[in-house]
Design goal:
It is a single chain. The chain is an all-alpha fold. The protein is built from 22 helices and no strands. About 75% of the residues lie in helices and about 0% in strands. α5 packs across α6, α18 packs antiparallel against α19 and α19 runs antiparallel to α21 (about 390-410).
Length: about 425
Amino acid sequence: MTIAVFTLSLLGAMALGMPIAFALIVCGVALMSTIDMFDAQIVAQNVINGADSFPLMAIPFFMLAGEVMNKGGLAKRIVNVALVAVGHFRGGLGYVTILASCILASLSGSAAADAAALAALLVPMMVAAGHKKSYAAGLVAAGGIIAPVIPPSIGFVIFGVAAGVSISKLFLAGIVPGLLLGAGLCLAWWWVVRQENLTPPPRASLSEMVKAVVDGFWALMLPVIIVVGLRFGIFTPTEAAVVVAVYSLFVATCIYRELKLSQLYEVFVSSALTTSIVMFLVAAALVSSWLITVSEISAQIVTLLKPFMGNNTLLMLAIMVVVVIVGTALDMTPTILILTPILMPIVKAAGIDPVYFGVLFIINNAIGLITPPVGIVLNVVCGVSRISMEDIIKGVWPFLIAQLIVLFAMVLFPGLVTIPAKWFSG
Protein backbone atom coordinates (compact mmCIF):
# COMPACT_ATOMS: atom_id res chain seq x y z
CA MET A 1 0.00 0.00 0.00
CA THR A 2 2.72 2.48 0.98
CA ILE A 3 4.67 1.77 -2.24
CA ALA A 4 1.54 2.57 -4.29
CA VAL A 5 0.95 5.79 -2.33
CA PHE A 6 4.58 6.85 -2.75
CA THR A 7 4.59 6.18 -6.51
CA LEU A 8 1.16 7.58 -7.35
CA SER A 9 1.51 10.74 -5.24
CA LEU A 10 4.92 11.55 -6.71
CA LEU A 11 3.93 10.84 -10.33
CA GLY A 12 0.56 12.55 -9.86
CA ALA A 13 2.15 15.75 -8.55
CA MET A 14 4.64 15.74 -11.42
CA ALA A 15 1.87 15.10 -13.96
CA LEU A 16 0.09 18.22 -12.69
CA GLY A 17 3.20 20.22 -13.60
CA MET A 18 4.39 20.69 -10.03
CA PRO A 19 8.14 21.36 -9.64
CA ILE A 20 10.07 18.28 -8.49
CA ALA A 21 10.95 19.78 -5.09
CA PHE A 22 7.29 20.47 -4.25
CA ALA A 23 6.28 17.08 -5.65
CA LEU A 24 8.68 15.44 -3.19
CA ILE A 25 7.10 17.32 -0.29
CA VAL A 26 3.60 16.36 -1.47
CA CYS A 27 4.77 12.75 -1.69
CA GLY A 28 6.06 12.93 1.89
CA VAL A 29 2.80 14.44 3.16
CA ALA A 30 0.82 11.70 1.39
CA LEU A 31 2.96 9.03 3.07
CA MET A 32 2.53 10.71 6.46
CA SER A 33 -1.23 10.75 6.03
CA THR A 34 -1.26 7.08 5.00
CA ILE A 35 0.54 5.93 8.15
CA ASP A 36 -1.49 8.39 10.27
CA MET A 37 1.35 10.58 11.54
CA PHE A 38 0.88 13.88 9.71
CA ASP A 39 2.61 16.79 11.44
CA ALA A 40 3.52 20.02 9.66
CA GLN A 41 6.40 20.59 12.10
CA ILE A 42 8.03 17.31 11.02
CA VAL A 43 7.82 18.43 7.39
CA ALA A 44 9.41 21.81 8.16
CA GLN A 45 12.10 20.25 10.36
CA ASN A 46 13.11 17.74 7.70
CA VAL A 47 13.26 20.43 5.00
CA ILE A 48 15.62 22.49 7.17
CA ASN A 49 17.73 19.47 8.13
CA GLY A 50 17.94 18.42 4.48
CA ALA A 51 20.13 21.39 3.58
CA ASP A 52 21.97 21.51 6.92
CA SER A 53 24.98 19.42 5.88
CA PHE A 54 28.64 20.46 5.68
CA PRO A 55 29.47 18.24 2.64
CA LEU A 56 26.69 19.98 0.68
CA MET A 57 28.70 23.20 0.95
CA ALA A 58 30.72 21.78 -1.95
CA ILE A 59 27.83 22.31 -4.37
CA PRO A 60 27.82 26.17 -4.52
CA PHE A 61 31.59 26.26 -4.90
CA PHE A 62 31.61 23.70 -7.73
CA MET A 63 28.79 25.64 -9.43
CA LEU A 64 30.80 28.85 -9.10
CA ALA A 65 33.92 27.16 -10.47
CA GLY A 66 32.00 25.95 -13.54
CA GLU A 67 30.73 29.45 -14.30
CA VAL A 68 34.20 30.96 -13.87
CA MET A 69 35.89 28.36 -16.10
CA ASN A 70 33.47 28.95 -18.96
CA LYS A 71 33.71 32.74 -18.83
CA GLY A 72 37.31 33.05 -17.71
CA GLY A 73 39.04 31.28 -20.59
CA LEU A 74 39.97 28.01 -18.87
CA ALA A 75 37.58 25.91 -20.97
CA LYS A 76 38.82 27.50 -24.21
CA ARG A 77 42.43 26.68 -23.40
CA ILE A 78 41.56 23.08 -22.54
CA VAL A 79 39.96 22.69 -25.96
CA ASN A 80 43.07 24.15 -27.61
CA VAL A 81 45.33 21.65 -25.82
CA ALA A 82 43.11 18.79 -26.98
CA LEU A 83 43.11 20.19 -30.52
CA VAL A 84 46.89 20.15 -30.89
CA ALA A 85 47.08 16.72 -29.24
CA VAL A 86 44.59 14.69 -31.31
CA GLY A 87 43.13 17.08 -33.87
CA HIS A 88 45.16 15.64 -36.74
CA PHE A 89 43.52 12.19 -36.65
CA ARG A 90 40.70 11.33 -39.06
CA GLY A 91 37.62 12.78 -37.40
CA GLY A 92 40.08 14.55 -35.13
CA LEU A 93 37.66 17.20 -33.91
CA GLY A 94 35.50 14.45 -32.45
CA TYR A 95 38.45 13.09 -30.47
CA VAL A 96 39.21 16.66 -29.44
CA THR A 97 35.66 16.89 -28.08
CA ILE A 98 36.06 13.66 -26.09
CA LEU A 99 39.49 14.58 -24.69
CA ALA A 100 38.32 18.08 -23.81
CA SER A 101 35.22 16.59 -22.13
CA CYS A 102 37.40 14.37 -19.91
CA ILE A 103 39.68 17.26 -18.94
CA LEU A 104 36.80 19.69 -18.32
CA ALA A 105 35.07 16.99 -16.26
CA SER A 106 38.02 17.11 -13.88
CA LEU A 107 37.53 20.85 -13.42
CA SER A 108 33.85 21.62 -12.82
CA GLY A 109 31.74 18.47 -12.27
CA SER A 110 28.73 20.03 -14.01
CA ALA A 111 27.48 18.24 -17.13
CA ALA A 112 25.34 21.14 -18.34
CA ALA A 113 28.15 23.70 -17.94
CA ASP A 114 30.72 21.54 -19.73
CA ALA A 115 28.33 20.65 -22.56
CA ALA A 116 27.39 24.31 -23.08
CA ALA A 117 31.03 25.39 -23.27
CA LEU A 118 31.99 22.62 -25.71
CA ALA A 119 28.89 23.11 -27.86
CA ALA A 120 29.66 26.80 -28.33
CA LEU A 121 33.31 26.14 -29.20
CA LEU A 122 33.35 22.85 -31.11
CA VAL A 123 30.01 22.24 -32.85
CA PRO A 124 30.57 25.11 -35.37
CA MET A 125 34.14 23.85 -35.97
CA MET A 126 32.95 20.28 -36.56
CA VAL A 127 30.22 21.40 -38.96
CA ALA A 128 32.73 23.57 -40.86
CA ALA A 129 35.01 20.52 -41.15
CA GLY A 130 32.20 18.59 -42.87
CA HIS A 131 30.71 16.54 -40.01
CA LYS A 132 26.94 16.21 -39.70
CA LYS A 133 25.61 18.68 -37.18
CA SER A 134 23.43 16.03 -35.53
CA TYR A 135 26.43 13.79 -34.79
CA ALA A 136 28.56 16.75 -33.70
CA ALA A 137 25.93 17.96 -31.23
CA GLY A 138 25.20 14.39 -30.09
CA LEU A 139 28.89 13.76 -29.35
CA VAL A 140 29.21 17.00 -27.38
CA ALA A 141 26.14 16.07 -25.30
CA ALA A 142 27.47 12.55 -24.65
CA GLY A 143 30.88 13.94 -23.74
CA GLY A 144 29.32 16.39 -21.32
CA ILE A 145 27.90 13.66 -19.10
CA ILE A 146 31.40 12.46 -18.20
CA ALA A 147 31.50 15.48 -15.85
CA PRO A 148 29.43 13.88 -13.05
CA VAL A 149 31.71 10.81 -13.05
CA ILE A 150 35.29 12.15 -13.05
CA PRO A 151 36.02 14.10 -9.84
CA PRO A 152 35.08 16.65 -8.73
CA SER A 153 31.45 15.59 -9.11
CA ILE A 154 28.33 17.27 -7.78
CA GLY A 155 26.46 13.99 -8.26
CA PHE A 156 28.90 12.15 -5.99
CA VAL A 157 28.50 14.85 -3.32
CA ILE A 158 24.71 14.51 -3.33
CA PHE A 159 24.82 10.69 -3.37
CA GLY A 160 27.48 10.57 -0.66
CA VAL A 161 25.39 12.76 1.64
CA ALA A 162 22.15 10.88 0.92
CA ALA A 163 23.72 7.41 1.24
CA GLY A 164 26.23 8.08 4.00
CA VAL A 165 29.14 6.99 1.78
CA SER A 166 32.63 8.54 1.77
CA ILE A 167 32.69 11.27 -0.89
CA SER A 168 36.49 11.09 -1.14
CA LYS A 169 36.30 7.37 -1.97
CA LEU A 170 33.58 8.04 -4.54
CA PHE A 171 35.70 10.76 -6.16
CA LEU A 172 38.76 8.52 -6.47
CA ALA A 173 36.70 5.53 -7.63
CA GLY A 174 35.15 7.58 -10.44
CA ILE A 175 38.39 8.40 -12.29
CA VAL A 176 38.87 5.20 -14.33
CA PRO A 177 35.13 4.62 -15.06
CA GLY A 178 34.96 8.19 -16.39
CA LEU A 179 37.92 7.54 -18.68
CA LEU A 180 36.27 4.28 -19.83
CA LEU A 181 33.18 6.27 -20.82
CA GLY A 182 35.49 8.47 -22.90
CA ALA A 183 37.07 5.38 -24.50
CA GLY A 184 33.58 4.10 -25.37
CA LEU A 185 32.83 7.41 -27.07
CA CYS A 186 36.08 7.15 -29.05
CA LEU A 187 35.02 3.77 -30.44
CA ALA A 188 31.55 5.05 -31.27
CA TRP A 189 32.98 8.14 -32.99
CA TRP A 190 35.40 5.96 -35.00
CA TRP A 191 32.41 3.92 -36.19
CA VAL A 192 30.49 7.10 -37.15
CA VAL A 193 33.31 8.85 -39.07
CA ARG A 194 34.53 5.80 -41.00
CA GLN A 195 31.65 6.43 -43.43
CA GLU A 196 32.73 10.03 -44.01
CA ASN A 197 35.33 10.93 -46.62
CA LEU A 198 36.97 13.87 -44.88
CA THR A 199 40.57 15.06 -45.05
CA PRO A 200 42.05 15.42 -41.56
CA PRO A 201 43.77 18.69 -40.68
CA PRO A 202 47.58 18.74 -40.58
CA ARG A 203 49.40 17.70 -37.43
CA ALA A 204 50.26 20.60 -35.15
CA SER A 205 53.95 21.49 -35.05
CA LEU A 206 56.00 20.93 -31.91
CA SER A 207 56.12 24.67 -31.28
CA GLU A 208 52.29 24.88 -31.51
CA MET A 209 51.94 21.99 -29.06
CA VAL A 210 54.33 23.59 -26.59
CA LYS A 211 52.57 26.95 -26.91
CA ALA A 212 49.13 25.37 -26.27
CA VAL A 213 50.35 23.42 -23.23
CA VAL A 214 52.13 26.47 -21.78
CA ASP A 215 49.05 28.63 -22.37
CA GLY A 216 46.77 26.02 -20.77
CA PHE A 217 49.18 25.06 -17.99
CA TRP A 218 47.27 26.79 -15.21
CA ALA A 219 43.99 25.17 -16.26
CA LEU A 220 45.62 21.74 -16.58
CA MET A 221 47.08 21.98 -13.07
CA LEU A 222 43.65 22.06 -11.44
CA PRO A 223 42.77 18.33 -11.80
CA VAL A 224 46.27 17.47 -10.56
CA ILE A 225 45.74 19.60 -7.45
CA ILE A 226 42.35 17.96 -6.78
CA VAL A 227 43.48 14.34 -7.18
CA VAL A 228 46.71 14.81 -5.21
CA GLY A 229 44.92 16.73 -2.47
CA LEU A 230 42.23 14.08 -2.06
CA ARG A 231 44.62 11.13 -2.40
CA PHE A 232 46.95 12.36 0.35
CA GLY A 233 44.24 13.79 2.61
CA ILE A 234 45.35 17.41 2.24
CA PHE A 235 41.74 18.53 2.01
CA THR A 236 38.23 17.06 2.13
CA PRO A 237 35.88 17.11 -0.90
CA THR A 238 34.14 20.17 0.54
CA GLU A 239 37.44 21.96 1.00
CA ALA A 240 38.44 20.81 -2.50
CA ALA A 241 35.41 22.66 -3.88
CA VAL A 242 36.62 25.87 -2.22
CA VAL A 243 40.12 25.31 -3.62
CA VAL A 244 38.67 24.80 -7.13
CA ALA A 245 36.55 27.97 -6.93
CA VAL A 246 39.31 30.20 -5.53
CA TYR A 247 41.96 28.81 -7.89
CA SER A 248 39.76 29.23 -10.98
CA LEU A 249 38.83 32.78 -9.92
CA PHE A 250 42.51 33.66 -9.44
CA VAL A 251 43.57 32.18 -12.78
CA ALA A 252 40.65 33.75 -14.71
CA THR A 253 41.07 37.25 -13.24
CA CYS A 254 44.81 37.56 -12.53
CA ILE A 255 46.60 35.24 -15.00
CA TYR A 256 44.38 34.90 -18.09
CA ARG A 257 42.57 38.18 -17.30
CA GLU A 258 39.54 37.22 -19.39
CA LEU A 259 37.11 37.58 -16.50
CA LYS A 260 36.68 41.25 -15.60
CA LEU A 261 35.82 42.38 -12.10
CA SER A 262 32.64 43.94 -13.52
CA GLN A 263 31.51 40.45 -14.61
CA LEU A 264 31.90 38.85 -11.18
CA TYR A 265 28.47 39.95 -9.97
CA GLU A 266 26.79 38.22 -12.93
CA VAL A 267 28.86 35.06 -12.35
CA PHE A 268 28.02 34.94 -8.63
CA VAL A 269 24.30 35.50 -9.25
CA SER A 270 24.15 32.83 -11.95
CA SER A 271 25.89 30.23 -9.78
CA ALA A 272 23.74 31.19 -6.76
CA LEU A 273 20.52 30.69 -8.74
CA THR A 274 21.62 27.25 -9.92
CA THR A 275 22.75 26.32 -6.42
CA SER A 276 19.43 27.37 -4.88
CA ILE A 277 17.54 25.02 -7.18
CA VAL A 278 19.75 22.05 -6.30
CA MET A 279 19.78 22.79 -2.56
CA PHE A 280 15.99 23.14 -2.36
CA LEU A 281 15.67 19.80 -4.13
CA VAL A 282 17.99 18.21 -1.58
CA ALA A 283 16.10 19.79 1.32
CA ALA A 284 12.69 18.71 0.01
CA ALA A 285 13.91 15.19 -0.69
CA LEU A 286 14.70 14.59 2.98
CA VAL A 287 10.96 14.71 3.78
CA SER A 288 10.17 11.77 1.51
CA SER A 289 13.50 10.07 2.37
CA TRP A 290 12.71 10.12 6.11
CA LEU A 291 9.23 8.77 5.49
CA ILE A 292 10.54 6.03 3.19
CA THR A 293 12.52 4.82 6.21
CA VAL A 294 9.65 5.22 8.69
CA SER A 295 7.07 3.51 6.45
CA GLU A 296 9.52 0.66 5.67
CA ILE A 297 9.16 0.99 1.89
CA SER A 298 12.77 -0.18 1.45
CA ALA A 299 12.03 -3.36 3.39
CA GLN A 300 9.04 -4.04 1.14
CA ILE A 301 11.15 -3.57 -1.98
CA VAL A 302 13.84 -5.85 -0.55
CA THR A 303 11.12 -8.49 -0.25
CA LEU A 304 10.10 -7.95 -3.89
CA LEU A 305 13.73 -8.31 -5.05
CA LYS A 306 14.43 -11.45 -3.01
CA PRO A 307 14.61 -13.62 -6.16
CA PHE A 308 17.70 -11.60 -7.20
CA MET A 309 19.33 -11.36 -3.77
CA GLY A 310 21.33 -14.57 -4.20
CA ASN A 311 23.16 -13.22 -7.26
CA ASN A 312 24.68 -9.75 -6.98
CA THR A 313 25.25 -9.48 -10.74
CA LEU A 314 21.57 -10.14 -11.52
CA LEU A 315 20.54 -7.76 -8.74
CA MET A 316 22.76 -4.98 -10.09
CA LEU A 317 21.48 -5.59 -13.63
CA ALA A 318 17.89 -5.30 -12.39
CA ILE A 319 18.65 -2.10 -10.46
CA MET A 320 20.51 -0.53 -13.39
CA VAL A 321 17.64 -1.27 -15.79
CA VAL A 322 15.21 0.39 -13.37
CA VAL A 323 17.45 3.46 -13.04
CA VAL A 324 17.80 3.73 -16.84
CA ILE A 325 14.01 3.78 -17.16
CA VAL A 326 13.59 6.35 -14.38
CA GLY A 327 16.35 8.47 -15.93
CA THR A 328 14.30 8.97 -19.09
CA ALA A 329 11.69 10.88 -17.07
CA LEU A 330 13.61 12.55 -14.22
CA ASP A 331 16.65 14.80 -13.97
CA MET A 332 19.79 13.52 -12.25
CA THR A 333 19.43 15.23 -8.87
CA PRO A 334 15.84 14.18 -8.10
CA THR A 335 16.58 10.64 -9.29
CA ILE A 336 19.50 10.41 -6.85
CA LEU A 337 17.45 11.86 -4.01
CA ILE A 338 14.40 9.66 -4.63
CA LEU A 339 16.09 6.32 -5.33
CA THR A 340 19.09 6.42 -2.96
CA PRO A 341 17.12 5.87 0.28
CA ILE A 342 15.17 3.08 -1.43
CA LEU A 343 18.11 1.27 -3.02
CA MET A 344 20.84 1.58 -0.37
CA PRO A 345 19.20 -0.85 2.11
CA ILE A 346 18.93 -3.38 -0.74
CA VAL A 347 22.59 -2.88 -1.68
CA LYS A 348 23.72 -3.27 1.93
CA ALA A 349 21.53 -6.35 2.45
CA ALA A 350 23.11 -7.96 -0.63
CA GLY A 351 26.65 -7.17 0.56
CA ILE A 352 27.48 -4.98 -2.47
CA ASP A 353 30.26 -2.42 -1.99
CA PRO A 354 28.46 0.97 -1.53
CA VAL A 355 31.26 2.83 -3.35
CA TYR A 356 31.06 0.47 -6.34
CA PHE A 357 27.28 0.83 -6.39
CA GLY A 358 27.54 4.62 -6.06
CA VAL A 359 29.84 4.91 -9.08
CA LEU A 360 27.52 2.82 -11.29
CA PHE A 361 24.46 4.62 -9.96
CA ILE A 362 25.91 8.04 -10.80
CA ILE A 363 27.04 6.87 -14.26
CA ASN A 364 23.51 5.62 -14.89
CA ASN A 365 22.02 8.92 -13.74
CA ALA A 366 24.49 10.83 -15.91
CA ILE A 367 23.40 8.80 -18.95
CA GLY A 368 19.85 9.85 -18.09
CA LEU A 369 20.88 13.43 -18.89
CA ILE A 370 21.01 12.52 -22.61
CA THR A 371 18.07 10.10 -22.80
CA PRO A 372 14.95 11.55 -24.41
CA PRO A 373 12.46 12.99 -23.77
CA VAL A 374 13.69 14.90 -20.68
CA GLY A 375 17.51 14.85 -21.20
CA ILE A 376 18.64 18.16 -19.65
CA VAL A 377 22.02 18.13 -21.41
CA LEU A 378 20.31 17.46 -24.74
CA ASN A 379 18.22 20.58 -24.20
CA VAL A 380 21.29 22.64 -23.30
CA VAL A 381 23.19 21.56 -26.43
CA CYS A 382 20.09 22.14 -28.56
CA GLY A 383 19.87 25.72 -27.36
CA VAL A 384 23.56 26.51 -27.74
CA SER A 385 24.00 24.73 -31.09
CA ARG A 386 20.65 25.84 -32.54
CA ILE A 387 19.64 22.35 -33.57
CA SER A 388 16.24 20.68 -33.23
CA MET A 389 15.61 18.08 -30.53
CA GLU A 390 14.65 15.55 -33.22
CA ASP A 391 18.03 15.94 -34.96
CA ILE A 392 20.14 15.73 -31.82
CA ILE A 393 18.26 12.60 -30.68
CA LYS A 394 19.19 10.97 -33.99
CA GLY A 395 22.80 12.05 -33.55
CA VAL A 396 23.24 11.00 -29.92
CA TRP A 397 22.10 7.37 -30.26
CA PRO A 398 25.48 5.79 -31.22
CA PHE A 399 27.15 7.48 -28.26
CA LEU A 400 24.32 6.72 -25.85
CA ILE A 401 24.50 3.03 -26.76
CA ALA A 402 28.30 3.03 -26.32
CA GLN A 403 28.00 4.49 -22.82
CA LEU A 404 25.28 2.01 -21.85
CA ILE A 405 27.57 -0.82 -23.01
CA VAL A 406 30.36 0.55 -20.78
CA LEU A 407 27.93 0.78 -17.85
CA PHE A 408 26.71 -2.80 -18.14
CA ALA A 409 30.28 -4.03 -18.71
CA MET A 410 31.08 -2.62 -15.26
CA VAL A 411 28.09 -4.51 -13.85
CA LEU A 412 29.37 -7.77 -15.34
CA PHE A 413 33.01 -7.05 -14.43
CA PRO A 414 33.07 -5.15 -11.11
CA GLY A 415 36.88 -5.15 -11.11
CA LEU A 416 36.78 -2.37 -13.72
CA VAL A 417 35.65 -0.11 -10.85
CA THR A 418 36.88 -1.73 -7.65
CA ILE A 419 40.49 -2.47 -8.65
CA PRO A 420 41.35 1.08 -9.89
CA ALA A 421 39.54 2.49 -6.84
CA LYS A 422 41.97 0.59 -4.61
CA TRP A 423 44.92 1.91 -6.62
CA PHE A 424 43.91 5.55 -6.08
CA SER A 425 42.72 5.22 -2.49
CA GLY A 426 45.71 3.18 -1.43
